[in-house]
Design brief:
40% of the residues lie in helices and 15% in strands. It is of the alpha+beta class. It has a domain of 125 residues: Nucleotidyltransferase, domain 5, CATH 3.30.420. The strands form two sheets. Strands 7-6-5-8-9 form a five-stranded mixed β-sheet, with helices on both faces. A four-stranded antiparallel β-sheet has the order 1-2-3-4, with no helix packed on it. A hairpin with a 4-residue loop joins strand 6 and strand 7. The radius of gyration is 24 Å and the shape is globular. It binds zinc ion. The site of zinc ion (ZN) has 8 residues, from loops.
Length: 337
């Protein structure tokens, strides 16, 4: 029998010893956050109005401009900003979350670190909210729906009308690529087609089961999808027509939720799905998962700064327009700012 290669590639390894060496205290964690936001420690100083090197300020969670001393805090706008929990503990929670295959329970974090269950639960909840990525799929894409949550004795499959315990989830996966999973209020044709349209690039080949909600996929305007269905009553694979990749993901999520979290409230299910999809989408990235997460957080921060800048520009432009209107005595109500 051929032996499977179970070794973790060297570039993906980050053992607990490596982690402890790299992040021994709060200062090391703070510096990591700082560098993830401002590469090489160069910050656009608001006083100098130029990019200037900043240095840590002792005893404070801040960095100061080396020319004028103006301080910036890398924690502003992050989940750590108003938290009393130490940064090292936050990092450890993130490490555990990224190092496991099926996640880790708040109870386990409580046992390992001594924080209260409420703190552990809240930390994981906040970390999960950051894990939702915005991606688009192409090529061969499998789409499938499933139901998570409350069980009914002796019954599986679609919930009956009025069953509020189960939450519908739609998964879209690019074969050999990334996955998107979303909770939806129901799996009607319009919900499914809108999701596919928003998340799958034009010209993709879509594979689904025979659920009638998918019948309009090849007719979505300007998308030019090809659509093939597998009839599960007859077989599960017909050449390249199958939904086994997405089904595999469902078993990972359901097994994980059952085994690790036991129960997940409907309102939190999307955040758990974010956690599972994030790990799935970075399983082959040649970096440790924990550092992948930090790369993602740095890109989120950049997006946030850009959107804030765009918002400011928008406001400024709006104000200028209002000012010109005032000069020219044009009624302001005609503006769509
Ligand atoms: Zn300065």
């Amino acid at each position: 029998m051929k032996r499977l290669n179970q070794a973790i590639p060297k570039e993906q390894k980050l053992t607990i010893a490596d982690f402890m060496r790299r992040f021994p205290d709060d200062a090391a964690c703070l510096h990591h956050i700082f560098l993830s936001q401002w590469a090489d420690g160069i910050v656009d100083c608001v006083t100098c109005k130029a990019p200037v090197k900043h240095h840590p300020v002792s005893g404070r969670k801040c960095y100061a401009c080396q020319n004028c001393g103006t301080q910036v805090s890398p924690l502003v706008g992050t989940i750590f900003e108003k938290s009393c929990t130490s940064l090292k503990l936050w990092f450890y929670a993130m490490y555990l979350m990224s190092a496991t295959r099926c996640g880790i329970s708040a109870k386990q974090l409580q046992r390992e670190t001594g924080v209260t269950y409420k703190t552990a639960w809240r930390m994981f909840k906040q970390i999960r909210t950051l894990m939702g990525e915005d991606i688009k799929l192409s090529g061969n894409v499998e789409v499938d729906e499933t139901y998570c949550g409350g069980t009914r004795k002796g019954k599986t499959g679609r919930p009956m009308k009025g069953d509020t315990k189960k939450t519908a989830v739609v998964g879209m996966v690019e074969r050999n690529g990334k996955i998107i999973a979303r909770t939806v209020p129901e799996v009607s044709g319009s919900t499914l087609l809108n999701l596919i349209k928003d998340n799958v690039n034009p010209l993709a080949s879509i594979f689904t089961d025979e659920w009638k909600g998918y019948s309009g996929v090849s007719h979505i305007t300007n998308r030019f999808y090809s659509h093939e269905t597998i009839k599960h009553a007859d077989s599960f694979v017909n050449g390249r027509i199958h939904t086994n990749t997405v089904e595999g993901f469902w078993s990972l999520v359901k097994g994980g939720i059952r085994g690790v979290y036991r129960q997940v409230g409907n309102e939190y299910l999307q955040s758990y799905l974010n956690e599972y999809t994030f790990r799935y989408n970075h399983r082959r990235t040649p970096r440790p998962m924990f550092l992948c997460f930090w790369t993602w957080l740095a890109s989120l921060h950049k997006q946030c700064i850009e959107s804030r800048r765009a918002h400011r520009l928008h406001l400024l432009y709006g104000l200028r327009q209002r000012f010109e209107c005032w000069l020219l005595h044009i009624p302001i109500v005609s503006l769509s700012v």
